[in-house]
Predict the structure.
Amino acid sequence: MGVLGWVIVVVIVVVVASVAFVVIRRRRRGGRVIAAKEKG
Amino acid sequence: MRLLMTASQIRGLPVVTVRGGEDVAEVRDVIFSPEAGRLLGVTLNKRGFLAGRSRDVLPAEAIHAIGQDAVMVLDALSLVAPEDAPDDVAHPAVERNVIGDDVLTEGGLSLGKVTDLVLLVGSSGEVVGYQIEKPGGGRGYIPLPAQLAVSGAALVVPNITEEFVKDDLVGLGATVDEFRARLGLS
């Protein structure tokens, strides 16, 4: 594999890792607006 | 002071102690009672870049004040374990997330979908309205009665709500009292 091949692999790895990082972080941070159940 | 904030502005705010200025947690979920028309409490994240959910929660009674930049509590003991917190806050009904729910008038007219909740903050936590995505596109704000039934995927509001759709939070703040007076609620 030439230099271009390695560059493509590195770019793909960086993009996938970035997306995974953002998704995981969002899941961990949460953020919902929850209506409590009515008592009556 | 009459300060209106959306739930998304409150989410992510640091929880800071009045005694000592310690940054003890971060707001995660906002839990409110449609029946009582007020904030019940918030769940928390630990502080830190990748820190996850905190086991402790913060009931509304333990909140000293909510401001634009922080939620203030007296001290770290204000954060309570789920066993000691009201059930609605300790174990929130996660399936009752109102974001994305349809807003329908009693006459069957769709006013849009809920994108956020508007609260009167400071030392109070009154729920005063919703931010909505209008059916034709664009953002709007509607006032809410002091009490509102929330069940299923739609929120049913009085017919006159249609007359009170505002384009910004300032407009909403000015119209809440008038709206409730028209409904005979204040």
Remarks:
- The helical segments of chain A are 3-29.
- Chain A is about 70% helix and 10% strand.
- Residues 11 and 17 of chain A are 10 Å apart (CA to CA).
